[in-house]
Amino acid sequence: MKNEFVLAFNEVLEEKQLPKEIIVSALEAALASAYRKSENASNAQPVEAKIDLQTGQVTIYAEKEIVEAVQDPRTEVSLEEARKVEADAKIGGMVLVESTPKDFGRVAAQTARQVIQQRIREAERDAQLEHYRHQVGEIVSGMIQAINQQGLTLGLEMKAEGFMPRKEMIPGERYRVHERVRAILLEVKENTKGPQIILSRGHRNFLRRLLENEVPEIYHGMIEIRSIAREPGQRSKVAVSALQAGVDPVGACVGMRGMRIQAIVRELNDEKIDVIEWNSDPAVYISKALSPARVTGVYLNERSKGTKTATVVVPEDQLSLAIGRDGQNARLAARLTSWKIDIKSLPEAATEALHKLQTNPEYEPFAEMEKEVVPQIENILAKKAEGRPVTPEEYQVLSQFVDRIERGILRQKSGEKYIEEERERIEAAHIPDEAFDIPLEDLGLPVRYTNLLSGAGYLSVGDLMLQLKLDQNPILKLEGIGPKAMAVIEEALEKLPFASQPEEIEEQSIGLINETIAEEVIIEEKLEIIPNEEEGLEKIPEEGEPLSQEIIAQPSPQEEVQTEEEVEEIETPSDKEPSLDDLFKWPPDKIEFETVESEEDEDESDAEKKKKKKKKKFVEMEFDPDRDTTIVKKKRKRDGSQWEEDWDV
Q1: What SS3 string covers 150-170?
Q2: Helix H segments across 360-391?
Q3: What is the pLDDT of residues 558-575, one digit of tens each?
Q4: Cα dihedral across residues 207, 213, 215, 220: positive or negative
Q5: 427 within 8 A of 393, measured Cβ to Cβ
Q6: Residue of 613 and 582 predicted with greater confidence
């Protein structure tokens, strides 16, 4: 039959919402402490308490010494009593016997109460800490309990308290006591008074979780949030992309008539939210990130020191819109794309490009190419400076001029970057692999030099050797390293067993680099770039007008006479008998197989063979206005009779 103890036990379980084992353990520890207080027993004496949850009966067991005559019943027990518990008990041994007192007394009961309360509080703190550690990064809801200068105190589930600092609030938002607020659980810290739960409404992940709750496509993985840039209470930009074909990421986030995004805006105290589509092309991505401004051109410079820089050219009437109030739009776009964005108006960009052509030596090749356009650009800029109207056609000329200059210099820099990377790759290939596995500390340099080199990013012997082969100046520029220190470093490297390398390797590396540069120069000279609207057309063909440029460079008459026999002689790997290893290295189209020729094939005249090998191919492009597409014509002369045309759309 249940007594008052069982009823009270069940009531505590329901109120504290703790596991039964934790409450039972707290009660047993409290009863053991009460026994020690009641019997004035030592803390060193092992005492155990057992509770029968069905009847509520409490039993105390204490460890006592077996003696012939009991003098202190708190610590001693007779042999006869001991053998009731253990049949093989002997004098001098220790045995755990029942020692339940008839009445604990008022002091013992008070002690038990304090122990129970303390154990239950500790159990509650541990349960809260474990529960909210799994909730980090999720949205929680709480009731405002107090408002002060430091922030808000919110009451959460499991009788926990959360704290929202002032810096994590949305600026301009007003709060009232007993108002229910949603926030993201930012951090959980363990404290002596219980878990310290930090909440936030200004963090960008709060906006991320709200989007996941409002947009089912994001929750189910059909749309991915790529990046978020947020200034709480003012404006946010969100970049999304579709992971499933046929899904409009921006439309799904906005919702029908903007219902989904408006629900988030109301939650964030009317904060403006721009949703844009993420693009793998950085230029397109940056252009969309600056919305609602219209962008004329984006020019990326990945070789700039520090953060990657993008120069953005916008029409003059879009400059203030692209920058935004206090630079907010440009600042958020830079955070969203992780690019440093430099925004210029079209006249400003044209003026700078013209100035660089006249003063910067790097722009000399472009100055020669644009010498006929420069006077026209100067006239347009002069009209703009005098306040005279500029026609849309003249703005188009400025835009094409800036586009040609910027893209040309970027192509030149990318070529230089490729040459540097190729040189670094070749030099690294001639450094033993084990050099990159040796820490710089094992080189035997003075500690001062080792610390300076490690701080500059040279963590292994291979890194140091590679930099010395490429250029010594970056190392000499380090504060504290001069010619004497460089001599010490070179001497230490020479002592390595793999430090000496043949001079042939160095000459081979230089030769490979020179060949790479020469090949690029030849390709640039031979290729004819077809102008288009993106590269800056000076004249756009009208509808129905064929393009004047051909797709490929026409060969010279001497090159046309070249027969296939000469080509085969160039492409054949070698006349000598190859080895089996060489055969595996050859591409399939370079391997020739012997075939038995018939007498009829041998009688075929050389003139007929040459006639077959001298067939010419010509390609033309025409724009068909009816089909709204470009048609490629391939002409061949067959059987010496007439030209035949193949059409490719």
Answers
A1: CEEEEECHHHCEEEEEHHHCC
A2: 364-369, 374-386
A3: 444 344 444 334 344 444
A4: positive
A5: no
A6: 582
Beta bridge partners of 47: 62
What average pLDDT score do residues 274-301 get? 91
Q: Do β-strands 151-155 and 161-165 pair in parallel, antiparallel, or remain unpaired?
A: antiparallel
139-147 vs 180-189, strand pairing mode = antiparallel
Give the whole-angstrom CA distance, residue 140 versus residue 196: 15
User: Which 3 state secondary structure label does DSSP give 3?
Assistant: coil
Q: What is the pTM of this model?
A: 0.57
Q: What 3-state DSSP class applies to 71?
A: coil
Give the SS3 label for residue 572: coil
Q: Distance between CA 648 and CA 33 in Å, rounded?
A: 96
Alpha carbons 355 and 367: distance in angstroms, whole number? 10
Residue 499 has a CB neighbour count (10 Å cut-off) of 14
Examine residue 292 and say whether the peptide bond preceding it is cis (omega within 30 degrees of 0).
yes
Measured between alpha carbons, how far is residue 408 from residues 285, 300, 346, 403, 478 in Å? Answer: 21, 12, 17, 8, 34
Q: What is the pLDDT of residues 548-559, one digit of tens each?
A: 333 333 444 444
Q: Is the dihedral of CA 119, 120, 123, 128 positive or negative?
A: negative
Reference 321, options 333, 305, 306; nearest CA is 333
* Residues near 432 by beta carbon (within 8 Å), at least 6 away in sequence: 462, 498
CA separation for the pair 35, 51 (Å, rounded): 14
CA dist., res. 555 & res. 9, Å (int):
99
Token reading at 523: 């390709």
SS3 content of the chain, % helix, strand, coil (to 5): 50, 20, 35
Strands (E), 221-286: 223-231, 235-242, 272-277
3-state secondary structure of 619: strand
Rounded to 5°, the CA angle 430-464-487 comes to: 110
Q: Give the H/E segment covering residue 113.
A: helix 106-133
Question: What would you report as the CA-atom Rg of the chain, rounded to the nearest whole angstrom?
Answer: 42
pLDDT at position 192 is: 76
Cβ–Cβ contacts within 10 Å for residue 51, how many?
18
Residue 625: what pLDDT?
61
**Amino acid identity, residue 602?**
E
Bridge partners (DSSP) listed for residue 235: 231, 272
Sorted by sequence, the CB contacts under 8 Å of residue 396 that are 6+ apart come out as: none
Domains, the chain, in order of start with CATH, read 4-125 (3.30.1480.10), 135-202 (2.40.50.140), 431-500 (1.10.150), 557-648 (no CATH)
Residues 129 and 190: beta-carbon distance below 8 Å: yes
The two tokens of residue 354 are 């013209």
Which residues touch 401 (CB under 8 Å, ≥6 apart)? 350, 353, 370, 373, 377, 536
Distance CA(13)–CA(33), nearest Å, equals 22
Residue 196 confidence (pLDDT) above 70: yes
| Mean pLDDT score of the chain | 75
Please answer whether residues 61 and 101 qualify as being in contact, where contact means their C-beta atoms are separated by less than 8 angstroms. Answer: no
Dihedral angle of Cα 404, 405, 411, 413, to the nearest 10 degrees: -170
Query: Looking up tokens 């009593």, which residue turns up?
Result: 81
